[in-house]
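// run 5 | inverse folding | seed 20
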């Protein structure tokens, strides 16, 4: 279980996170919704230890993570798939996937790569193709696949539908559901609130760095304020 309690983060003089508390229970998908600048990506960066909070607690299964480096967080199974994909364009698909497993010393890396190909068969078809020549949707698949190669317990997904052709968005979200059913907890930051609420168990709505609403995803889909601000109704 991943848990944040009363977390505050400053960017210079900007109070980016204002006392947020959230929980990602084992085996669940949790959505983090909100407009631009609400603090969604900042939350994921703090969890990855790329940003130091000014105040608050961050725990995995009751143990504080605040003294851990980003590399230690990765080794403990908290894997961040950032927005805008950020693949290594001059490296092949295979090389990008292997980079995702850089911290691992076990003997199941090849097996896990084959599992990635069950989620994303197109990556196997393009195994020796340079990542920079892939379509936007394929690069997103590669970014998620690379994250899975780290063998995550909790996968932090930042805007997986951003810049993706609509025809591929539903496919990627179905794959995210399958990844979760196979045992990976997911914290999902997503601009497509309808799709996020459709696949998640619980959701938080961030506004100006604080949590304005939270609840079961099925209930938030029927919330008038959420519908007005994020669902186009």
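// decoded
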């Amino acid at each position: 279980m991943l848990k944040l309690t009363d977390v505050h983060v400053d960017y210079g003089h900007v109070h980016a996170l204002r006392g947020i508390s959230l929980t990602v229970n084992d085996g669940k998908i949790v959505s983090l919704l909100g407009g631009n600048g609400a603090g969604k990506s900042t939350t994921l960066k703090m969890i990855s230890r790329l940003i130091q909070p000014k105040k608050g607690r961050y725990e995995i299964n009751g143990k504080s993570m605040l003294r851990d480096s980003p590399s230690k967080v990765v080794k403990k199974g908290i894997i961040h798939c950032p927005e805008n994909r950020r693949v290594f364009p001059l490296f092949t698909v295979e090389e990008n996937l292997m980079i995702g497993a850089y911290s691992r010393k076990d003997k199941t890396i090849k097996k896990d790569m084959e599992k990635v190909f069950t989620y994303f068969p197109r990556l196997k078809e393009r195994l020796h193709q340079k990542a920079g020549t892939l379509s936007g949707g394929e690069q997103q698949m590669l970014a998620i696949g690379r994250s899975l190669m780290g063998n995550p317990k909790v996968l932090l997904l930042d805007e997986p539908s951003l810049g993706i052709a609509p025809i591929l968005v539903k496919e990627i979200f179905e794959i995210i559901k399958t990844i979760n059913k196979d045992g990976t907890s997911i914290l999902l930051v997503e601009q497509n609130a309808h799709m996020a609420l459709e696949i998640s168990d619980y959701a938080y709505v961030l506004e100006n760095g604080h949590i304005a609403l939270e609840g079961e995803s099925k209930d938030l889909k029927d919330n008038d304020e959420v519908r007005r601000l994020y669902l186009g109704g």
